[in-house]
Amino acid sequence: MALLVSLAVGLLAACGIYLLLRPRVFSVILGLTLLSYAVNALIFLGGRLNATAAPLALPGAQGLADPMPQALVLTAIVIGFGMTAYLVALALRARAETGTDHVDGAEGPEDGR
Amino acid sequence: MIAGALLFVLLAPFVGVPAVVLLQRLHRRCAAWGAAAAMAAGLAVLAPFVPRVLAGETLVARWQWLPEWGLDFALRLDGLGLLFCGLILGIGLLIVLYAAYYLPEKDRLGRFYAMLLAFAGGMLGVVLAENLLLLVVFWEVTSLSSFLLIAYKYEAREARVAARMALAVTGGGGLALLAGVLLLGQVAGSFDLSEVLARGDVVRAHPLYPVILGLVLLGAFTKSAQFPFHGWLPAAMAALTPVSAYLHSATMVKAGVFLLARLYPVLSGTEAWMVVVGGVGAVTFVYGAYVALRKDDLKGLLAYSTISHLGLVTLLFGLDTRMAAVAAVFHIINHAIFKASLFIAAGIIDHEAGTRDMRRMGGLLRLMPWTGALAIVAAGAMAGVPLLNGFLSKEMFFAETIGHPAFDGAARYLLPVLAVVGGVLSVGYSVRFVHEVFFGGAPRDLPRTPHEPPRWMRLPVDVLVALVLLVGLLPQVMVGPILLSASAAVLQGEVPAFRLAIWHGFTTPLLMSVAAMLGGLLYYRFRHVLFALHARLLPRDGGQMAFERAYRVAELAAMRAMAWLDPRSLPAYLALLVGFVLVLGVWAWRGGAPADLAGPLAWGSVDPLTGFGLLVLAVGAGGTVLLHRRPLVALMLLGVAGLMVSLGFLRFAAPDLALTQLSVEVVTVVLLLLALRYLPQVTAAESGAARRWRDAVLAGLGGLGVAALTFAMLTRPFETISGWQIAHSVPGGGGTNVVNVILVDIRGFDTMGEIAVLAMAALGLHALLQGLRLPPAAGVASAQPGEGLPVMLAMLMRPLLPLALAVSVYIFLRGHNLPGGGFIAGLVTAIALMLQYVAGGIDFARARLRWNYVKVLGAGLGVAVATGLGSWVFGRPFLTSTHGYVDPPVLEKFELASAMGFDLGVYLVVVGTVMLCLTELGAVSRSGRVGG
After folding, report:
1. Nearest residue, CB atoms, B710 vs list A45, A50, A91
2. Closest approach of B613 to chain A, Cα-based (Å)
3. Least CB-packed of B195, B460, B513, B656 within 10 Å?
4. Which residues of chain B have pLDDT under 50?
5. How far is it, in rounded angstroms, from Cα B713 to Cα B710?
6. Taking Cα atoms as reference points, which of B729, B745, B719, B689 lies closest to residue B876?
7. From the list B642, B660, B924, which residue is nearest A92 (CB)?
8. What is the mean pLDDT of chain A?
């Protein structure tokens, strides 16, 4: 299980990085979203894998899931949305100003081949 | 008592900054009164402490700030501080009055006084600081606010250049000072002035002493415009005259010599001090006086004269005898008074005559007799004429140059000769000022015919020149006590006996004074000979030009370097970043003690459901990459991956995360769909194969690294650090949902920061989309309003709205004990509202949901802060929560914690953020001005 989950997180990160390096704005936004999944998962897994842990501190609950990484990740997810929204606005503004959706604001020499 | 008073004196100007800006709306005169009140209040509050300070007491007030870094907010009032407070506030008050008349009627004065007060506050902070780091902080305040003051007429390029130069020089000096003070604090073992002053021996014996001395002096010399850092001061004459009169008489440039005085007991007493401080002071003294005579601009002459007089003060400190330090303090007082009056008079002449060029003036005494007489008296003090204040300190200076212990043999004539030469030059430029402006024929084509200024405009000169005379005639009565206590503060010990009197008998200093007078008159008479000689032998002086040239060269070099270093391409930056992180990771892993990747924990077996989920996740993520050139499909696949991530959270005991991820996923997909309207629907293969391979390798390695890291972590045991939070969640926070209790209670302050970030992101989007008009991308059908809306959905959505809202309220209320809370409830509400937009169209929804989402954001932050402040009312720290149970009729008994108020703030911010983003993005193609 540990190996498989790790590979999944790694795959998310790899896909995110690859898209992040693309020259089009939308790909970069997709990449950033994938990368944030990976990072959130990594932080969350700091509480280790435990499918049977109790999520709530009810009386008599034993083996509570670690709430700290969860609290960290919860706000990170919401802030991730704020960041994506801001990035989208930036991309649209950039497109209006430069007329292109290339991340560098102009078609690069390496692109378009 | 003293603590409150000092705090008041220091804060009054800073409180005045916004106040005058508001007051100017009423009338420009109100702004002036406000600024004057801030200064006068400081003087009034200090007055009761004057006797104690004059009696030799040092009053200290202290508030802990960052004690572990040695930074306390500590203030001290001793003789030196009191003297400077008097100068800053007293002359400041006169400047406030003067500026009200000097600035044109159409200037509302608010901006001017705001800057002036900020500057005065910075100066007060410098002279009142007990903590050295605090002193540096206020030192920077003066650098920044003087930059703004000099650039007040920012439309003029000259003013901008001058301001930039002043900031570059004094700001750079400030950095050196910071470094010097940090070292000094380390060496002395404390940043408290009281302790540092007592440890002069330790500091002077330390191997780092030369470094400390150099850095501190760099700060002092740049601020006090000592050679060769003097260039900014004449350039700063581009500023308004009230600014020059304030900055270059009593304040800004005096901060440098104040620093010399303040650290005198610590740093002085070595050969290095005497050579550097004395040497720089001597050169500046003579150089400034020489250049001053050659200036045709009235203010230019005064500027170089200021440089020269500051050089004199520096030289006095550098002579390093106890009596010389007393003379230095005395000259600081005298120079502040006569130079302020001269600048103000120069401003009046400029104001009345329309020019500052002395070659065009002459005979102004007949046209403005009263102002002229005052200016002549002040210029006399500048030259050191007997019966005026400047004479007294200059004579003390002459006396100190005779028989200085460091010079013997033939060299003992060196200092007196230098002093007389400086005196001759000072008399020369003072005579030029008096002769060319007020005598010497009639004015030559002045733009205006000058006459006496309004009475109130001249009042500051009246007051200052009265002081010049009073100090000159009754020195012991006027300044004796304050000079004694200020000198005691400088020397931190016995002050040598001195007698302030106008007549000491026929002494050598008197002879030197007479020689300087006569020499000066002769020098002025034959100045043309010297000028011709100068023109032949020496190049034109151009400090400002040289600075500008150096600045341009640096700018150009920076641009070249950037062009060479900087690929100016985001993918290139990111590739570098990823590569660098990979190198760091490998280095950290291989560099430490060798460890196996897998830890001791069992790997655990895979159950089919989880395995299937992970497979779908892989397909979603991989598919997003493979199909990324078809954004719509890629977006759907991304949604699949996101869904699997949220299911994963659910699987591993994190229901809150699952709910959050799920709802964020929904709004993100809608957001990106909206964005897609304006972006190409299909993009061509873009990068070359080599580039794609490089990226794939980078991505693969990065993914492998993350996977390895995760695996290593998952197979290692750990001790949770959340024990305290879990233990206190129910008894302390009143909730069984520990995650929510952490968010809104235990770490409420962090969450406050996070919702602020969220609000900022939304406002950033709001600002970016403001006035943006983008046509939909090619291939996107531009739907007409009301066309093509899903009827079924519309019919279904309207009755569903109250239901959805009820669900969100439920989620919100139960959040403390069961999965839910403000974040999730906010997202659910936003989704419910958003569906109305989707189903009914933006016009339909907007007509019904007339929310200003920016205000919702503000309300949310307001509620959160108010909840936090609420605990102050009960004398508890910010954001302390309390809880209890309520048992309402009909409904089930539930628990109410004050943290719920905070959670309500979170809820509102989340709703505001999401709705602001989505509605504004949805409206981009509709109109230039979007809702909100």
Report:
1. A45
2. 10
3. B195
4. 927-932
5. 5
6. B745
7. B924
8. 85
Interface test with B, best of A12, A24, A35, A107 (most B CBs within 10 A): A12
Burial B279-292 (b: 16+ CB within 10 A, else e): ebbbbbbbbbbbbb
Q: Pull the structure tokens for residue B706.
A: 């993350």
Which pLDDT score, from 0 to 100, does residue A51 have?
Answer: 73
pLDDT of residue B931: 37
B810 CA: distance to closest CA in chain A (Å): 18
Residue % of chain A over a pLDDT of 90: 43
Per-residue b/e over B479-501, b at no fewer than 16 CB within 10 Å?
bebbbbbbbbbbbeeebeebebe
**pTM recorded for the entire structure:** 0.69
- Spell out which residues of chain B touch residue A20, defining contact as CB-CB under 8 Å: 574, 578
Which 3-state string (H, E, C) describes B182-197? Answer: HHHHHHHCCCEHHHHH
Task: Search chain B and give the residue with CA nearest A21.
Answer: B571
pLDDT at B789: 66
Q: What is the pLDDT of residue B294?
A: 85
Distance from the Cα of B830 to chain A's closest Cα (Å) equals: 13
- Find the CB nearest A55 among B654, B688, B713: B654
Chain B residues with CB inside 8 Å of A7's CB? Answer: 707
C-alpha span between B214 and B413 (Å, rounded)? 29
ipTM of the complex as predicted: 0.93
Using a CB cutoff of 8 Å and minimum separation of 24, what contacts does B687-694 make?
Answer: B687/A22, B687/A23, B687/A110, B687/A111, B687/A113, B688/A110, B688/A113, B691/A110, B694/B575
Cβ(B658)–Cβ(B649) under 8 Å? Answer: yes
Q: Which of B570, B621, B913 sits opposite A82 (nearest CB)?
A: B913
Q: DSSP letters of B88-137?
A: HHHHHHHHHHHHHHHS-TT--SHHHHHHHHHHHHHHHHHHHBSBHHHHHH
C-beta separation of B204 from B197 below 8 A: no
* Residue numbers in B near A70 (CB within 8 A): 654, 656-657, 739
CA distance A106 to chain B (A): 10
Residue with token string 């006090």: B224
Contact (CB<8Å) B921/A15 = no
Taking CA–CA distances from B691, the nearest residue in chain A reads A110
Instruction: Please give the Cα distance from B352 to B344 (Å, whole number).
Output: 12
Q: What are phi and psi of B782, to 5 degrees?
A: -90, 105
The verdict on a CB contact (< 8 Å) between A8 and B654 is no
Alpha-carbon span B432 to B316, nearest angstrom: 26
One-letter amino acid at B124 equals L
Query: What span, in angstroms and rounded, lies between the C-alpha atoms of B150 and B159?
Result: 6
